[in-house]
Amino acid sequence: MSVDPGDIVEVSTEDCFGGMVKTSRDLPSETVAFDRLNPVSGPIEIRGAEPGDLLAVHFASIVPARDYAISATFPHFGALTGSHETVTLQPPLDERVWIYDIDVDAWTATFSATRSDHRLVMPLDPMHGTVGVAPASDEVRLVVTPSTYGGNMDTPELRAGVTLYLPVNVPGAMLSLGDGHARQGEGELCGTGLECAMNSVIAVDVVKGAAPAWPRLQNDEYLMSTGSMRPLEDAFRISQRDLVNWTAELTGMDTLDAYQLVSQTVRTPAANVCDPNFTMMAKLPTWALHDASVYGGMHQHLKAVSAKYRN
Amino acid sequence: MSVDPGDIVEVSTEDCFGGMVKTSRDLPSETVAFDRLNPVSGPIEIRGAEPGDLLAVHFASIVPARDYAISATFPHFGALTGSHETVTLQPPLDERVWIYDIDVDAWTATFSATRSDHRLVMPLDPMHGTVGVAPASDEVRLVVTPSTYGGNMDTPELRAGVTLYLPVNVPGAMLSLGDGHARQGEGELCGTGLECAMNSVIAVDVVKGAAPAWPRLQNDEYLMSTGSMRPLEDAFRISQRDLVNWTAELTGMDTLDAYQLVSQTVRTPAANVCDPNFTMMAKLPTWALHDASVYGGMHQHLKAVSAKYRN
Amino acid sequence: MSVDPGDIVEVSTEDCFGGMVKTSRDLPSETVAFDRLNPVSGPIEIRGAEPGDLLAVHFASIVPARDYAISATFPHFGALTGSHETVTLQPPLDERVWIYDIDVDAWTATFSATRSDHRLVMPLDPMHGTVGVAPASDEVRLVVTPSTYGGNMDTPELRAGVTLYLPVNVPGAMLSLGDGHARQGEGELCGTGLECAMNSVIAVDVVKGAAPAWPRLQNDEYLMSTGSMRPLEDAFRISQRDLVNWTAELTGMDTLDAYQLVSQTVRTPAANVCDPNFTMMAKLPTWALHDASVYGGMHQHLKAVSAKYRN
Amino acid sequence: MSVDPGDIVEVSTEDCFGGMVKTSRDLPSETVAFDRLNPVSGPIEIRGAEPGDLLAVHFASIVPARDYAISATFPHFGALTGSHETVTLQPPLDERVWIYDIDVDAWTATFSATRSDHRLVMPLDPMHGTVGVAPASDEVRLVVTPSTYGGNMDTPELRAGVTLYLPVNVPGAMLSLGDGHARQGEGELCGTGLECAMNSVIAVDVVKGAAPAWPRLQNDEYLMSTGSMRPLEDAFRISQRDLVNWTAELTGMDTLDAYQLVSQTVRTPAANVCDPNFTMMAKLPTWALHDASVYGGMHQHLKAVSAKYRN
User: Fold this and answer.
1) Inter-chain contact D187–C266, Cβ cutoff 8 Å?
2) B75 to chain C: nearest residue by CA?
3) DSSP labels, B153-192
4) CATH number at residue B251
5) What backbone torsions phi and psi does residue A160 show, to the nearest 5 degrees?
6) Which chain C residues are closer than 8 Å to D111 by Cβ?
7) Residue A311 in domain
8) DSSP H helical segments within B96-146, as ranges?
9) Residue B187 is nearest to which of A115, A116, A236, comparing CB atoms?
10) What is the DSSP string of D34-84?
């Protein structure tokens, strides 16, 4: 698929299990090979995008495509278990599947406990866990590992209304996306959100020569830098340094003054603490920048042109 | 000082520099010895508190006591520099002091850049960086290291309106507090907030035999668990496991069901990523617990009895 | 290049700078692009090797090909500086180049300080920093990142006389090697060893269906497991768990008994603490296994058939 | 107990379980409270030692005092299990006790597997896991946490023939020691060595004004720096930076030249990867320093005066 900068694209994505987990008896570890998890839609070629450019992807709409979503504990995956990276000799936690009822009209997901009758109705907050471009240096990577090219960052900030900025590493950028979650807590504690197929609408554009070192996000209230690394403090440091540098650039302040300003105003939710790289967010309220113009008002522009697709 | 459970106490605290940094020429590293940073007010003995009890400390009011606050880069301290723990051969960042104007009537702090004329008026959001009790096992610790006994957790969540729950380790609990910040970003990036002397009002109470393993907080919207450890993912894990266990206890669900529920609803701001232990917060919205009663409604009780002191 | 199991192969490798740093004025950061560092010789196809097999590579001889070797501090690379992963706001350490005189006849390298007249003659201890096979799951990776497929592990244990065991992920295994060091301390502290082109002789063979999860090594005195991960304790844990499992398998003991035996006899040098993944070694003396037979005596066999090439 | 610099002292120490674990049915977690583990002998006051001085402790002899030693898995303690710091939701590994037969005449320890008839005779290599002085800044710490004052570093390098250098923080230094191991692998993988009561002979002396920042060791072949911190790379960095600075001081080279020299010659065994702080060793062969004199030949002096006590 090939599109032009400025185009609006409707994308359907499968859930992270490729749609193969449908009941609480379909254990993911028996149903899907680990390196086949997280199938993505794409790649989408953005014509004219060249290495060194910035790719802007605005999410106008993300809507669950099914009336259920799946969450699960996957053996040796998640923040509160030994993992493939933090290995121990202990057996894995039990593998268990939770089925959530999704009601798009009511905009709710319903949790049902598996070992008691506890139920909870939660608001939907749909997002894409995985959005990325082709890596630099001719590398080919499993999307499960988030890095400078985006990938499986698994942040709930990637909801409708946000614009994602990615570096272009290869001609055409080669955008792909997937791993929709009907909602997810910060940190993706158990390793999965409310995994769900999605129907999404995105608007894409290009800023020549403006590639960021790491993925950035913007919504109406915040500028956000990301860092994806292990250990978690290195992900934190990467996201914060990028935000400090971005602030210095937008305000004309020197680095230490920007460091000071960010220190007193930043918000720092985790994105994921379960993937092969952990992802941290650094969020600066736009009021702290006197509402400075960012990438020539790209976020506002893409929001406006895709307004009629907003869900 | 000795008080009874149920008492309301007015406490004045010095800033983290003992009040000795007053101008941008007073470099903290030359003005205060490292192990004399963070003086605290106390200890306050709570009569009848015994090891194994829970000490509840409700913050009714925290108000800056001066018309200025200080922030600074301190050599080899902070999240974006090599430190005493993460040592490198590089020279430290420049030591620099920022003076903020505090206007309690307008409820604002004004940032002024040191190398340009950039200024920003920010809302006040006063908090205590350091609140703790005497450690267990006859240890004596510098308060700069946060741990199970509380201490220098440096979370902006410790603002007026919150109730802090601490384990009692010694008879009388021996509560101390200090390190007021007129505001602070999450993570305390540069190592300091808007350091300021404070006038605070707290209400204290005791729940027999209910000592939590790690400090917990509660406000009208969230239950919060904390973890203070290095590396950052271990602080994250501690806070999240405590929240999972707390959720299981309050809902009667089994551990994996609670793990699932927390995974989809939790918020995870950093408290500090600069102290000898890093601190992470795990925040669960009370709606996710059907507004379950916590410690017999202690938070609501202390909020009510101290209502007239609210600022 | 295509060889058969049992073949002996002579390989010439360039140094990690592609031979382009020749004097102390050739700063690596100006001479070589980061993603062109560490060129490797290969890939060598081993006919008949299939996914799931074990590839054994015995190093009969590794001899410096030049009369000098290069070491350098590279900006933001090395264990005692902020890096591309552990980012700070501090400027990098000075970039500096050291030229060592290599005397193959005397089997020495001579260090000369750059800012004083301190000199030291050291014994040569040649090794390959980078030896690996094609990754699994169709990934393509820069060799600078060590992982399950081998790659830039940078361990001084990879000297002549050792047999390296690698998992085969693709038909033919596709072996490549390079990054010779005339010697290197454990941990590769400053980010480089005595970087040198090498003439090496290897003997390769295949054990059907015996792919290890992580690279393993064997010499006459030790069995060695490796782990490449961040943070360093995770690299440690991976290497130790592999050694525990290997010990259990070779002795018939249960896992906890093997854990106990390894705990009291293992040696644990770092390989590198500077690359995008850190590498730790877990070394078990063969006497602790009553000299159990490993992979059918593969190490002894390859050592014998290549004996005449030993340097 | 109070001694003079230059004195030789005979010390008996209990094992880390206070002698209360005697059979494989005495589970440590049921027999000893966690904060009563690791009892130490002392404190020994060294008359005339003042803050800022260096305390030298030469170990002339360390001999097992019993004909058995104990090792065990302790719940949530050890490198290959979730722990009190790296928490997970998984149940602990089985708690199991191993009894080793100690034969001082043959200088052997005999391992017997608990679930098979595998046996292994190992050479003794007695060491003290815990040697430390009173902390600075009026802190009081459980000895189980190693830090700048020494404490529970758990390195097999602390065997007879080594001299340990510690900073003096309080008048008299207040030396204590214990936690003898009849032998231990590097890293103390399962959390315990061959725990054994010991009869030891030490020689103590003081160098005025020469306090090192972190504990250092010296034997006939190596100078050693230590670092105790989490995560493991920070322990590594601390030990390496101290060794670089020490090398610069002893050779007169600048820091980067010393960094280079250490990089190519250092050895880096883990001490422990299980305690509340992890400990790494940085070992420089004395030949790399042209056998420079260290602390006025203190190691050679103490070795000579205590020669008749050598075991």
Assistant:
1) yes
2) C90
3) ---TT-BTT-EEEEE--STT--EEEEEEES---TB-TTS-
4) 2.60.120.580
5) -60, 135
6) 260-261, 264
7) no
8) none
9) A236
10) GGG-S-EEEEEEETT--TTPEEEEEEEEEEESSSEEEEEE-TT-STTS--S
- d(CA A150, CA A133) in angstroms, rounded, equals 7
**Model's pTM, two decimal places?**
0.97
Strands C198-207 vs C8-13: parallel, antiparallel or unpaired: antiparallel
Beta-carbon contacts below 8 Å between C and D: 189
Question: Alpha-carbon distance D157 to D217, whole Å?
Answer: 8
Is residue A46 within 8 A of residue A67, CB to CB? The reply is no
Neighbours of D (≥3 Cβ pairs closer than 8 A)? A, B, C
CA pair distance A20, A224, nearest whole angstrom: 34
pLDDT tops 90 at residue A35: no
The Cα A247–Cα A292 span in angstroms is: 10
Residue B101 resides in a domain: yes
| Distance of residue C237 Cα from the nearest chain A Cα, in angstroms | 6
Three-state SS at D108: strand
**Distance (Å) from the C-alpha of residue D155 to the closest C-alpha of chain C?**
12
Best residue in C74, C89, C96 to probe B by mutation, most B CBs within 10 Å? C89
Q: What's the alpha-carbon Rg for chain C, to the nearest Å? A: 19
The B-side interface with D (CB below 8 A) comprises 35, 85-89, 136-142, 229-231, 234, 237-238, 241, 244, 255-256, 259
Is the Cβ pair B188, A244 closer than 8 Å? no
> Is B116 a domain residue?
yes
| Number of domains chain A is built from | 1
Q: Which residues of C touch A244 (CB under 8 A)?
A: 89
- By a Cβ cutoff of 8 Å, what residues of chain B touch chain C? 80-82, 86-93, 231
For chain D, 311 residues long, give each residue's pLDDT as a single digit of tens.
999 999 999 999 999 999 999 999 999 999 988 778 889 999 999 999 999 999 999 999 999 999 999 999 999 999 999 999 999 999 999 999 999 999 999 999 999 999 999 999 999 999 999 999 999 988 888 878 999 999 999 999 999 999 999 999 999 999 999 999 999 999 999 999 999 999 999 999 999 999 999 999 999 999 999 999 999 999 999 999 999 999 999 999 999 999 999 999 999 999 999 999 999 999 999 999 997 899 999 999 999 999 999 97
- Answer whether A237 sits within 8 Å of C86, measured CB to CB: yes
Alpha helices, DSSP H only, in chain D? 28-31, 232-251, 255-265, 298-305
Longest dimension (CA), chain C: 57
D257 with C232: Cβ contact below 8 A: no
Taking the CA of residue A23 and the nearest CA in chain B, the distance in Å comes to: 16
D185 token code pair: 């692998």
Question: Quick check: B111 and A290 in contact, CB under 8 A?
Answer: no
E-strand stretches of C133-187: 150-151, 163-167, 175-181
Taking the C-alpha atoms of residue D124 and residue D103, their distance in angstroms, rounded to an integer, is 9
Residues D24, D98 contacting (CB under 8 angstroms): yes
Q: Subunits that touch chain C (at least 3 Cβ pairs < 8 angstroms)?
A: A, B, D
Range of the domain at B12: 2-306
